[in-house]
Design a protein that fits this description.
four-stranded antiparallel sheet, seven-stranded mixed sheet, single chain, mainly beta
Length: about 130
């Protein structure tokens, strides 16, 4: 059974940093491309970042480009989201998702992902 477990969410002041982790079990991480989405109160879930199965290609939402970095360690079956220069508007529950390494559509769509974690809360205070 495929399972994704996010961790690393916390309360942090604006300008601070956090690193989120998404640990995968039940399958080999290199079989999947991975993405991070976030869901803030009163808003729809939105794309944050994605990474191809090999790590060779990365994709970012404009709102986080230059501040967030997605990476993966296939040997550790873990995907990371390094978040720097955090802003109050980054406050949300962050979710990781997995899609087939052969997926050829847009990673920006929620529907592209086959599996999801339960989320981790990130709160940025001003």
């Amino acid at each position: 059974q495929v399972q994704l477990v996010e961790s690393g969410g916390a309360l942090v002041q604006a300008g601070g940093s956090l690193r989120l982790s998404c640990a995968a079990s039940g399958y080999t991480l290199s079989s999947y491309a991975m993405g991070w989405f976030r869901h803030a109160p009163g808003k729809e879930r939105e794309f944050v970042a994605a990474i191809s199965w090999s790590g060779g290609n990365t994709y970012y939402a404009e709102s986080v480009k230059g501040r967030f970095t997605i990476s993966r360690d296939n040997a550790e079956n873990t995907v990371y989201l390094q978040m720097n220069s955090l802003k109050p508007e980054d406050t949300a529950v962050y979710y990781c998702g997995a899609t087939s390494r052969y997926y050829s559509g847009s990673y920006y769509r929620q529907g592209a992902y086959l599996y999801w974690g339960q989320g981790t809360q990130v709160t940025v205070s001003s």
